[in-house]
Amino acid sequence: MDRGDVSSRIAALRGDAVALARDLAEHGRGLDPREAFEVAGELQGLVNAAEGAQAVAAAYGARFESRMVSDRVIERTHPVGFVDGMAPSMLAMEAGVTEGVAGRKVRLGAKLSARFPQVLELVLEGEVAAVTAHKVLDACAGLDRDACRRVDASLAPRLAAMDPARVSSETRRIAARVAADQVAEHAAKTRKVRTVEVCPSEDGLTEWFALLPTATSKAAWSAVESLAAEYRDVDDTLTVPESRADAFGDLLLRNVTVNAQVTLGVPVVTAAPDPAVVPTVRTFSPRDPDETIIDATTGEEVRIGDLPADTQEDLGWHDFADYECADGPGVPTAVEMAPIRVGADTGATALVSGVQLPGLGWVDATTVAGILSTLPLQVARAVLNADTGTLASITTDAYRPPARMRQLVTTRDGTCRMYGCTRPAERCDLDHVRPWPTGPTTPSNLAGLCRRHHRLKQQGHWRPTLHPDGTMSWTDPSGRTRTTEPAHRTVPDSSSPTPRTAAPAATAPAAPPPAAPPPAAPSPGDHSWDEVPIPF
């Protein structure tokens, strides 16, 4: 099959689809509701066929296995149905989707091609959606090739007309009939994969995912429902979801001692900033003649009524900040007239900010303030760039980065730097983007890659480039680029301006680490210090 011919046909199909989509967007208002839904249903068949073709193409790519042996790559070709560990990553880069979505597409094409030929034919014809085919695969997990083909032969003739809500249950029923022993064995194995995971959600919230045995889940849910009902009896403002969340948290933390560790960055101004220009409004309010003031020259108390008329008039004029409102200049409040500041000589203000906790998400400022007021603190220091507020870093001539450099890079990256990968950076390898010793061991040449994507990078198809601000670009031989962002930006160690701002970090550790040493004086041309990295 000619690669250029395939690309030309895909381009032609895409052009027709784009033209149709634009025509519908511009002139679709002329369709009545029934006609519009009928057109949408017909287009679903086109989507089904396209997803089937994509899955088949990905399955053919996934059968090639690449392994690093010494300094060379060895490739093996397997029958269709084999999925190389790098295949989801490769498809994720090519298709611009996450690795999880790419893995589902690869698995769909591989399993259908090898075990469900009749279901695959329905998908390619557009009669069955890819999501329905996924239900068939999930319900047949644990079955061997022969058992899957028997399920395929029994299910495929009825699948296109079957209620999508019944696909999973019907597939399981057929699987239990044709291979009851394999279904039972798989059920026994799945009980060993119980797990609990957390991931960031909206600001201030974290999502939990739990995979538990059914009996345990039933007991836990009964406990949550019972305690949530008691909470709603006490507080009638609680909704059902809120009361369940509170009950779940309380049950989870019962008889548990909690230790928290939070890292915060607090800017410290070392020089007085230029005062901001504030527009003012001049207002006259005559002073009471019987009011007294202290004469600045003599130090004696003087009655305002005894002063000259022009002096009394001068004392009656007052300057206020010009606060515009709907009805004209407003009157400043007491808070506006006297802002609370820490250190009037520097103009610095007290501020407690929220913080991003890796793997959990954003914690709001109110919660951070509560943590600071209830937990013991340990103060360390880090050197920041005064202009950008980003971290400085350290350098070394060795191949292996020191612990503090590893901590800085891990904090900067947050996750694996491969496009679409969300594995935490703490579990990743620290890889030289440009091979050592050509590339130095500095944060500007180090990136966290999980073991799988570390191997993928060594294969050389996608070439990474780490930019000074921490952004990482992956480029394939054709020049196409995918870009990943760091969790926190850092200053490049060799080209950054001299840092002029120090930031103390307030931490509340379970086991307080030793305080970091003060920064050494920089030598000419060297703007790097050995400091503890603080996330911002």
UniProtKB/TrEMBL annotation:
<protein>
    <submittedName>
        <fullName>DUF222 domain-containing protein</fullName>
    </submittedName>
</protein>
<feature type="domain" description="HNH nuclease">
    <location>
        <begin position="404"/>
        <end position="455"/>
    </location>
</feature>
<feature type="region of interest" description="Disordered">
    <location>
        <begin position="460"/>
        <end position="536"/>
    </location>
</feature>
<dbReference type="InterPro" id="IPR003870">
    <property type="entry name" value="DUF222"/>
</dbReference>
<feature type="compositionally biased region" description="Pro residues">
    <location>
        <begin position="510"/>
        <end position="522"/>
    </location>
</feature>
<dbReference type="Pfam" id="PF02720">
    <property type="entry name" value="DUF222"/>
</dbReference>
<feature type="compositionally biased region" description="Low complexity">
    <location>
        <begin position="494"/>
        <end position="509"/>
    </location>
</feature>
<feature type="compositionally biased region" description="Basic and acidic residues">
    <location>
        <begin position="482"/>
        <end position="491"/>
    </location>
</feature>
<dbReference type="InterPro" id="IPR003615">
    <property type="entry name" value="HNH_nuc"/>
</dbReference>
<feature type="compositionally biased region" description="Polar residues">
    <location>
        <begin position="472"/>
        <end position="481"/>
    </location>
</feature>
